[in-house]
Each structure stands twice: as C-alpha cells, then as structure tokens.
C-alpha cells in the first residue's frame, strides 16, 4: 500500500474527523506502546470520540497506574484504525492481524517502519512514540490531564531506559519537566518501573544468567529464555520486559543477544549494541528497530540462530 506522509497537525485533523476508532499496538506491548495507545485514546474521548485500545497478554502490575484511568468504548466495527508504535503489520497480535491491510494511520518512531498504512506519521529521530503522540494531542487542542501525562511519561521513560539510553535527547528532559508540571509523580513511576522486580522476574533472571554464553573474545554475550523457564517461574511476558539489557550491561560486551522462545516455536531475538547498528543487523533476519536496540523473530534451533547472529555481528566487528 502506498502511504502518504503526514505531520502531527495533519494527523490531529484526520483523527478528529473519525468517530469509532480502533487503536492497535504490537504484540507483547511495552511501556511506549501501552502509554501511547491509552494517551491518544483519552485525548480522543475528550473530543467525544469512541475509542478502543487493543493489547494482548497480561501486563505487569505497574501498568495499572495508566490502564485503570482508561475505559474502552463499545465501537462495533471501527470506521478508523490507528496503529501506534508499530513498524510492521507482522508484529500485530493474532487477534488483530486481520486489520493489517486496513490500517488508516500509523504513528511511529522506528526508522525501519515499512509504512503499511494509508497515512504515516513517522519521526524516526524521536526517542519514543509517546513524544509524537504528545504533539498530536496538543495539535488536537486537548487538555493534557495528569492521566494523559502519566501515559506519556511511561512511554518516554521506558523507551529511554529512564533517560539512560543513547537515544535520550535534551528535548526528552524538557518534555519530562513539562509532564512533572502536569502532575506526574516521577519518583513513584520510576520506583515501580525501574526500582522493583517481581519474584518471578528474579527467578527468570537467575536461570538466564546461569546459562549465559560468551563468544568473540567476550564481545558478544547471549542469554536464552525457554518456554519451560517461563512456566517454572510463573513468568508472564511483561515480567521479562527489559531483560534484553542484561547481557549488554556487562563490561566489554559490544553486542548482547537475548533469545526468547515463543508459543509458536519460533524465537524472538532482542539485540542490544554498544556501537553497531542493531537495526541493520536484525533487518538481515526480517526484523528491525533502533540503532542500538532492535529485534527479529526467527525459526530454527537456538544453535542455528546463535551461529547466524554471531556471524553477522562478527563481520561488523571485523572478527570474521
């Protein structure tokens, strides 16, 4: 589908023309996807629009801080489909994949976006989708309530790693300051999101660390999470959000690879890098993402996937 590029003002005008709006996120949604979806829904509801945000799976407990402020509308068959933080329709959950060829608008920040909607608001320089959503909400003339500000902060803080990642900009800090002035309790959010871990998360980390592998003179670190490990620890998907940062955090590691076994037998790969283009590497395997954080989904055995990923990384490290 040929897409038309739009700006935040055009996106705002187009959304205000719609009435029954379905908002899609990617499967296993993170803080940016959930925060962006609920924020735009709350803003549109202010304008009398009927909205329903779709996500799948059980969310981590701290997400209740933003999900409880949102009441989905009964919209029946939507007359407008909006996707947020979604770079590729293949990332839609099974229960919404049927909408993949009828998405009216995508709001996204991934440089690897395939632009599959009728209209696309893409700002690849943005650190998170939530900061683009914030522009659209303002362009719609909505009141940025504390609930909306909370949603934007969740997206902003999670995609920048609480402002620690290399994608963090001066504008991010200015936006955070604005959100604080709108009532966001950042101490509370930061403690719940970054300062606490569930017992299940600690147990899965223990198992993952015990099987950690190093290769390429210690420049590549790999951890693997199987379905049986998730079952043994009673982990839900949101319990392992952010776990891909662990191997990259080790001194001397240039690339951290996390393999997570999916229900369909495939493996979700998360790649975090120090200096390499993670998105370019993952694009070789049908994925994408950001320069320092990207992912893909592969079939095959863990051994086969590791060999292929390590070979691609070694080539770029000059070790092949």
Short description:
This protein is an alpha/beta fold and 320 residues long.
Description:
By secondary structure, the chain is α/β, with parallel strands linked by helices. It folds into two domains: 4-194, Alpha-Beta Complex (inorganic pyrophosphatase (n-terminal core)); 199-317, Diaminopimelate Epimerase, Chain A, domain 1 (Roll). It has twelve helices and twelve strands. It has helices at residues 8-17, 31-46, 64-67, 129-139, 146-159, 170-181, 186-195, 199-210, 227-233, 245-248, 278-283, 302-317; strands spanning 4-5, 20-24, 50-54, 80-84, 105-108, 119-122, 213-215, 220-225, 255-261, 267-273, 288-289, 293-298. The strands form two sheets. A six-stranded parallel sheet has the order 1-6-5-4-2-3. Helix 1 (8-17) crosses helix 4, helix 2 (31-46) runs parallel beside helix 4 and helix 5 (146-159) packs parallel to helix 7. The termini are far apart.
Name the descriptors.
inorganic pyrophosphatase (n-terminal core); 2 domains; Diaminopimelate Epimerase, Chain A, domain 1; six-stranded parallel sheet; alpha/beta; globular; about 40% helix; about 325 residues
SSE layout:
Blueprint: E1 4-5, H1 8-17, E2 20-24, H2 31-46, E3 50-54, H3 64-67, E4 80-84, E5 105-108, E6 119-122, H4 129-139, H5 146-159, H6 170-181, H7 186-195, H8 199-210, E7 213-215, E8 220-225, H9 227-233, H10 245-248, E9 255-261, E10 267-273, H11 278-283, E11 288-289, E12 293-298, H12 302-317
Parallel strand pairs: 1-6, 2-3, 2-4, 4-5, 5-6, 8-9
Antiparallel strand pairs: 7-8, 9-10, 10-12, 11-12
